[in-house]
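Consider the tokenized backbone below.
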């Protein structure tokens, strides 16, 4: 959020502000940013207004744009004019204020033309206001206003101190404390002793205008780079300083008196599940030639429970099936040597069969 002049109000100069209240455009903005890990709600800012300049909102997103919701209030253009009381004549004051005449009204222009400049009376015998002076004529039936009794001047208002400063540093504000006191003894008395209409309006005073000490503004940790096992996470650490209700990003050397927090850290959401071989290889599926054999491979959590294969690293999964070679199978008749009995019968000339 920034003005047309380029002055950043919230999240400017590629820096992320902490949630809080920020002044800009003649109003105060309340900036909210939920935790990115535990909440899916987006960032938001709200101001009661009205703004006194044009402000621009820029959005930078690295993920798909979820959309923007906005609301605004348009001031009413219709102004209701107060009605004149029945006893009030044209040109007479209303509640201590003079009536403003519209020079573009032709009827009013004719009324002014018919006014006798020497006597100050119009053709309708109504008094005419001249140069901001009230008419001296009063109706006979008007009762003079009763003047309130004059207050005793023995007491007056006196400043006896100031309120506490709203901040301990970085330009706060305070107001004078007024009390009714005796003019002579200066002793404090009840406020009813003084005229409330003469009580001065407390004016705001600046206090503790020196800058606050710089501090490290620590952002939220990013998500762990690994869903299981050892990973890394990062966070933004900026040097900031508060002045005039505004948190400013300053050079890091101003925070040299403080130890800078770590910006990176290791993280482990859980221990990764691992592959386990639970059975030996089965026998080959064929007695000869090339067949296959199998074994059981399961993904097991650190608690010993069998879980879905997606919980383990598929690249490290052991094979649960492989080929097996049982040697070549017979494709023709093979002959062996004659046995001893067959040889003897053939030697004697007998037929063995």
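A designed sequence for it:
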């Amino acid at each position: 959020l920034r003005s047309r002049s380029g002055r950043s109000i919230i999240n400017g100069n590629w820096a992320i502000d902490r949630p809080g209240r920020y002044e800009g455009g003649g109003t105060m903005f309340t900036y909210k940013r939920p935790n990115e890990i535990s909440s899916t709600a987006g960032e938001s800012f709200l101001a009661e207004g009205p703004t006194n300049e044009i402000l621009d909102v820029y959005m930078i997103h690295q993920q798909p744009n979820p959309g923007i919701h906005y609301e605004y209030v348009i001031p009413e253009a219709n102004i209701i004019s107060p009605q004149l009381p029945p006893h009030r004549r044209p040109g007479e004051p209303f509640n201590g204020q003079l009536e403003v005449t519209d020079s573009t009204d032709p009827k009013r222009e004719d009324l002014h033309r018919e006014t006798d400049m020497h006597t100050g009376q119009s053709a309708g015998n109504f008094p005419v206001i001249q140069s901001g002076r009230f008419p001296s004529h009063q109706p006979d039936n008007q009762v003079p206003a009763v003047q309130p009794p004059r207050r005793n001047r023995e007491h007056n208002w006196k400043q006896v101190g100031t309120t506490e400063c709203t901040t301990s540093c970085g330009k706060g504000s305070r107001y004078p404390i007024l009390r009714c006191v005796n003019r002579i003894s200066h002793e404090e008395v009840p406020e009813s002793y003084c005229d409330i209409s003469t009580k001065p309006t407390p004016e705001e005073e600046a206090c503790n205008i020196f800058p606050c000490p710089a501090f490290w503004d620590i952002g939220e940790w990013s998500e762990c780079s690994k869903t299981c096992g050892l990973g890394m996470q990062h966070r933004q650490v900026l040097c900031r300083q508060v002045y005039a209700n505004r948190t400013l990003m300053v050079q890091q050397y101003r925070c040299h008196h403080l130890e800078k927090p770590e910006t990176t850290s290791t993280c482990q959401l859980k221990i990764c599940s691992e592959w386990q071989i639970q059975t030996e290889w089965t026998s080959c599926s064929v007695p000869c030639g090339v067949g296959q054999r199998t074994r059981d491979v399961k993904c097991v959590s650190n608690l010993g429970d069998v879980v879905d294969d997606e919980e383990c690293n598929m690249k490290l999964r052991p094979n649960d099936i492989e080929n097996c070679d049982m040697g070549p199978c017979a494709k023709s008749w093979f002959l062996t040597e004659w046995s001893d009995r067959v040889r003897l019968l053939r030697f004697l000339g007998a037929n063995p069969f």
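The longest strand covers residues 155-162.
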